[in-house]
């Protein structure tokens, strides 16, 4: 039994990097594909959750960041920069530390979840709050990195990010022994849907799998440019991770949808919050609100008959619930301490 080597060494023959490059890694990837019994019962499908919150910094971004940071290091970058709704910044900060590079992150002021901010601070990134949204941050990051070539841009517009993130599709197909029929995931800047479609496509082209899934991309209703077919200038949603109005990988996301016979759909904040609570309470998997958008989208799509019973469905839940403690406690009954005596505890458990 050899321990998991991190995704670059696990899938080295399928990634475009020079053979002598040593991975900058925190041993990301190899995340659980968890059978979702309750969701399977609700939908009549065979539903799995790809639990990306199990990555080292708690989100799927680590898959892209191991590649982007290895690439930055070997290309002689001195520092890295990213725009972020929170997870990218936490991941960039961690991997920059491993690589010995400086890291600065541009975040929309006041709109990033507490856990993510805490990570970026602890991991030593320079945090720059921008008076604007994610789209403004990304524009600024692009500008700075084009003027200063010694600073690497580690957003998903960097092709190395997509290369790393495509490995999630490999892992799913490896675990199932086939591609799923439908793949559901939340969409913000649209890097991840691009990456999954690339991964599924490469396995299919090489004959590892005999089919590719239909891709169902779910956006928050207040930040749904791909659903509307036009950018949104003031995106708004409780799912701050996907509060994005002008996805950088727009064309690639549309290609994934069209080539796969898939769809984009919107989930309201209420639907997202309901799915958020359901996945925690019924599946035992605590994800962040943006991640629950995929589950909300699946339930609505099934209710409308967009997918049939009996299909194999994978839902990527992109980030860990611990990232956003404020939203978890909002709307829940206040937690009241209970008396610490055995009878009272047993009573609480409905045993006495
Ligand atoms: N889910 C979570 C938890 C995210 O953090 C993101 C993106 C997405 C889904 C959407 O992925 O952008 O590839 O379509 N977060 C970025 C960030 C924007 O800065 O952390 P996407």
Alpha carbon gap, first and last residue: 47 Å
Shape: globular
- The total beta strand count reads 10
Question: Helicity range of the residues?
Answer: 40-55%
Estimated share of beta-strand residues:
5-15%
**Poorly predicted parts:** none
Radius of gyration, CA atoms, in whole angstroms: 20 Å
Alpha plus pi helix count? 15
What is the CATH topology classification name of the largest domain? Rossmann fold
Ligand inventory: ligand F0G
The structural domain count equals 2
Structural class: alpha/beta
3D structure, described in words:
Helix content is 43%, strand content 15%. It has helices spanning 7-10, 37-43, 61-74, 87-99, 114-122, 134-147, 159-165, 167-176, 191-205, 225-228, 250-260, 269-283, 289-303, 325-329, 342-348, and strands at 33-35, 46-51, 79-83, 102-108, 126-130, 151-153, 182-186, 214-220, 263-267, 312-317. β3, α4 (87-99) and β4 (102-108) form a beta-alpha-beta unit. The longest helix has 15 residues, at 191-205. It is of the alpha/beta class. It contains 15 helices and ten strands. α3 runs parallel beside α4 and α3 (61-74) crosses α7 (159-165). The termini are far apart. The strands form two sheets. Strands 1-2-10-7-8-9 form a six-stranded mixed sheet, with helices on both faces. A four-stranded parallel sheet has the order 5-4-3-6, sandwiched between helices. The protein binds ligand F0G. Ligand F0G binds next to α4, α9 and α13.
């Amino acid at each position: 039994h050899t321990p998991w080597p991190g995704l670059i060494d696990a899938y080295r023959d399928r990634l475009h990097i020079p053979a002598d490059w040593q991975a900058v890694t925190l041993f990301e990837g190899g995340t659980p594909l968890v059978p979702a019994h309750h969701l399977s019962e609700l939908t009549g499908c065979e539903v799995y959750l790809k639990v990306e919150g199990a990555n080292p910094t708690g989100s799927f971004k680590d898959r892209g960041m191991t590649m982007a940071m290895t690439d930055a290091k070997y290309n002689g970058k001195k520092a890295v920069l990213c725009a972020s709704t929170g997870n990218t910044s936490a991941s960039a900060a961690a991997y920059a530390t491993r690589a010995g590079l400086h890291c600065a992150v541009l975040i929309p002021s006041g709109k990033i979840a507490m856990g993510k901010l805490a990570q970026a601070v602890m991991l030593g990134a320079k945090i720059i709050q921008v008076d604007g949204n994610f789209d403004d941050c990304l524009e600024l990051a692009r500008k700075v990195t084009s003027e200063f070539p010694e600073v690497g841009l580690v957003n998903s517009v960097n092709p190395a990010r997509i290369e790393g993130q495509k490995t999630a599709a490999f892992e799913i197909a490896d675990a199932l022994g086939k591609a799923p029929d439908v793949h559901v995931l939340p969409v913000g800047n649209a890097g991840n849907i691009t990456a999954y479609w690339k991964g599924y496509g490469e396995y299919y082209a090489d004959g590892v799998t005999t089919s590719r899934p239909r891709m169902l991309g779910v956006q928050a209703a207040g930040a749904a440019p791909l659903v509307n077919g036009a950018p949104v200038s003031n995106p708004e949603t409780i799912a701050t991770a996907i509060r994005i109005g002008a996805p950088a990988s727009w064309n690639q996301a549309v290609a994934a949808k069209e080539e796969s016979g898939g769809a984009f759909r919107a989930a309201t904040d209420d639907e997202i919050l309901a799915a958020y609570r359901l996945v925690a309470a019924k599946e035992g998997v605590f994800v962040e609100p943006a991640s629950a958008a995929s589950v909300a989208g699946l339930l609505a799509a099934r209710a409308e008959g967009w997918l049939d019973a009996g299909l194999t469905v994978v839902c990527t839940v992109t980030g860990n619930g611990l990232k956003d403690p404020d939203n978890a406690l909002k709307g829940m009954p206040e937690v009241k301490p209970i008396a610490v005596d055995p009878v009272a505890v047993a009573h609480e458990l409905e045993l006495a």
